[in-house]
Amino acid sequence: MPAASEATLKALRELGLTQYQIDAYITLVDGGQMAASEISKKASIPFSRVYDVLGDLERLGFIIVKKARPTQYIPVSPHEVIQLVRLRWEEKMDKFSKVIEDELQPRFTQQSPATARDVWLLHGTAAIIAKALSILDETREQLLVSLPSLDIQNDELSAFIEPVLGVKAEVKILTSSIPRNMKDLIPSHFEVRTRDRVFGAGVVADRTHTLIMLSEGSEESDSLGIYSSHHIFADMAATYFESLWTDSKPI
Asked: Quick check: helix, strand or coil at residue 203?
């Protein structure tokens, strides 16, 4: 059995596993249920450490312990493991985000009034999507959205498109492509128009918040965002959007 790729090893480390825990889990995935002595030998884990390692993997939900003589250790499906980890992270995020936002957001708002210099560069898809979601949460009256494709299956933009569909304010979406399965998902109060080409992606919310999303390369880290919270920047972006909107076709 070939060794696991460096990408997989890195991903498991990012999930918080130690090297011994990784070695033990992969050994079980490759070989099925085993006794501790066999895991110790095949994964090159000192026997004095192997029970602690396996106990940690059981608590994390990566393996199941079967009482027998000797005790057997059974790997949990990687798909099931990832679902479990995701649920735990979501629970933590729900808990921690409320605590942090409830206390610190009012302090940030009080000490950070908008000025004409409020223009920032955002690097990486994650940072851009996070800012976009924050803008959507604050939208009350109007949202202008420009997207190359209104496709919820688009891996890069799906985390943004889904929340857009839940906005209750006036929404105008300008795009060049709408998959057939998306049309039934668009709320009735949305206006959507198409044109031959739409470059990049962007939003203007309540004539105040503007975010332009650009891509400099194929990697997520190559993505670049330009954000402004000043109305002059928003007015310019909205005017440009409306000029394209006038020359576009309603769906």
From this structure: strand
Looking at every residue in the chain, the average pLDDT score rounds to: 88
Provide the residue type at 46 as one letter.
P
Superfamily of domain 118-250 in the CATH hierarchy: Endonuclease Chain A (3.30.870.10)
182/194 Cα distance (integer angstroms): 14
Contacts for 152 with CB less than 8 Å, ≥ 6 apart: 158, 161, 162, 182, 185
Residues 175, 199: Cα–Cα separation, whole Å = 9
pLDDT of residue 116: 46
Q: How many helices (H) and strands (E) does the chain have?
A: 8, 11
**Single pTM value for the model:** 0.59
6-77 folds as Arc Repressor Mutant, subunit A (1.10.10)
User: pLDDT tens digits, residue range 119-132?
Assistant: 888 888 888 889 99
Which pLDDT score, from 0 to 100, does residue 156 have? 63
Domain boundaries of the chain, sorted by first residue: 6-77, 118-250
8 Å CB contact between 170 and 143? yes
